[in-house]
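Progress note, project year one: complex with iron/sulfur cluster.
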Amino acid sequence: MKPFNIYISGVGGQGIIKTSIVMGEAAMKMGKPVVMSEVHGMAQRGGVVSTELKIGSSRSPIIQNGHADLLLAFEPLEALRAIHKINRNSYVIINTSPIMPFNISESKYSYPDISIILEELNSKSKKLYAIDGVKIAKKAGHILSLNMVMLGGASAVPGFPLDEKILIESIKDNLPQKSLITNLKAFKEGFISVSE
Amino acid sequence: MNIKDVLTAPKNEVLFLLGNEAAVRGALEAGVSVTSTYPGTPSSEIGDVFSKVAKDADIYFEFSTNEKVALEVAAAAAVSGLRSFTFMKHVGLNVASDSLMTTAYSGVNGGMVVLSADDPSMFSSQNEQDNRHYAQLASIPLLEPSNPQEIKDIMNYCYQLSEEFQIPVLIRTTTRVSHMRGVVKLDSIFKSKNIGFFYKDPERFVPVPEAARKMHKKLMEKMNKLQERANESTLNQIFHKNGSLGVITSGGAFNYVMDVVEENNLPVNVLKLTFTHPFPEETVLEFINDVEEILVVEEVDPVMENAVLAVLGKQGVKKGIHGKLDGSLPLIYEYNPGIVLNGIKKVLNIKTIEKEIQETSIPLPERPPTLCPGCPHRAIYYSVKKVISDLDLENVIFPTDIGCYTLGIESPYKAGDYLLSMGSSIGTSCGFSKATRQCIVSFIGDSTFFHAGIPPLINAVHNKDRFVLIILDNRTTAMTGGQPHPGLPVDGMGEEAPEISIEKIVEAMGIKFLRNINPLNLKQSQLILREALEYHGVAVIISKYPCMLIKSKVKKNNFVVEVKDDCINCATCIKDLSCPAIYAENDTIRIDPKLCRGCSVCIQLCPEKAIKVKKRNINY
Ligand code: SF4
Ligand code: SF4
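Model obtained:
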């Protein structure tokens, strides 16, 4: 089985590694082979965080450039930085609220216009889903449920290989009980925002 | 998954484990009794998991003061008949290597496994040294697993090997293997004894020259036998067979090879080596019989490639060998599927259908890592820079060390000029003090001070050096995720433990200038820094305040700050402090309440007193 490759990128603190583990464990529960790569250490302190997840037969957890089926970007600039992972047939889901790099005021380049980022990704992928994940998360109950909004969105993409029921089980296994209602709501709203 | 599942999940269950977590399970299944480490990425999670499960597993685990001590703890346990496991990042093995070399000579009784987690491409390290060389240098067996399941499975094999040959065994992983997650099928945990007995045998355990000469001979005999074992090992396997090019690979590189070979159905044979030292020469000779040319794919140095060349030379076999040495593959940095595919294509002289890779011409601003909002290091860096500029000091040298505070090299602080290794801040300060007339302000963290800072500080006092040393005591080993160290009242198993006082250590060295500061109190810090800079001799300042990441886990801050109308948009707070919570929006200064940790440093430095507390009070 050709793997379904998901490249997830964003900024430290957005819950990216957790989200990837939720997907990975769901795949495992469904009996699918799955491998994942994550970063730790120096790379994390407020910097870029990315994980790579391959669901289906694959040995290396690294997605070859141009081979991501889905780019799940928690932050617009980080979506664009990961563009080398996608091809013309890839899907892209992007949370449109930017997080400025802390040193942006003295950076050589300014933060690109969101509309330019969206246009660029739209023209270079099969389909771009731009969602205001932060707004949806807040509506669901907490800004920190952004990762579940993104996960819900991912599960609405054509070809996404994980069952909703098992994903929800995996969410229950991996996220704190006390925020479960919010998280499930965020997941559902994320799904709706992408399916529309 | 709950991290305790690593211990409690039964045989045949599957878990989605990180390579590092799988190493813990593997050691527990093998009946390990004593485990030790000094935390370092990419090996840190091994210790984090042991520290959570050791008590329940009824085994011993410690965060040692440094890797050399960790290795010595494991070696003594192993000569006392217990199975021991010590693990560290690649550069940690440099520290431990002095004792590793002799452990190879004297050997072990209980099995001893040493794991080195290498960091090709340097995600979190100062170099990308290839620690497979240590297996050659010390003459010990080496295994290179490729994924979490293999890491778990080879642990038991390594212990058997170690006990049969009475030799420590080295496992080498890389970042992409240690930090890879995969489905791991479990076996049962084996509980072995955890009280050993040391039988004296000075001829074996005390390498005075007379004894050492015998030991070395014996070691060579062991290695000869181990060579046979490597040749017989089923861990070295042929995976793909349909071509005239033979690919020899190991570790994480094997994964890339298989992915691109299978996807593109490339005409190659693949030999995966896991037991790589002593080099399985016969396995390799047999494999290359069937092929015309050979490509060696490995990270980072051409270790196997050189070994293959030697084997062919010895046997007088003439075949094309490709790899790093002829430029078919890059000589440095980590590989990925694309790099490996290109290498194979180059050698085979073929083209494959490529997916079009997307690119963008829009320039992207960087997002470098930075100190957390409210980090006490930022405050001290600010004060140091302020005092130095107030005093008009020029060409100050800032020797720095390893930890979050290494990020002090960034603008606006630029307080990091020279760094070699753990503890080098102090040793190099001694050198600068002798070699130059420049002013020296040196930084070292608390955990790093215990690790390697004490001998050079003694050196500084005894040799009458002159510099300011700032010990950044944030009450944890922050960079690697917040592990305890000897300065804390808790040990690696979560038990109460005697707290070693940095202050008393420094005092005992006879250092006359010793001051404690709270770095978040700018006025006090700057006064003391001024004094220190005028002092003739070694001036030590202990800058004590807990790491924000650890602190906010314990207690959420109950106030933040905001910018009031008095702000004249001078942007001093952004330019001189650069806290990630402070930003300018259309030239108006704002503070992001989600990021602000209420450390109050910006309040103190704002020349217009325009930043004020919002909600609740600050504590000083
Ligand atoms: S983890 Fe702690 S020490 Fe490291 S940057 Fe953050 S606050 Fe500072
Ligand atoms: S109080 Fe000021 S310096 Fe401290 S975290 Fe908040 S914004 Fe940053």
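The mean pLDDT of chain A is 94.
Chain A has one domain: 4-195.
No further modelling is planned for this target in the current period.
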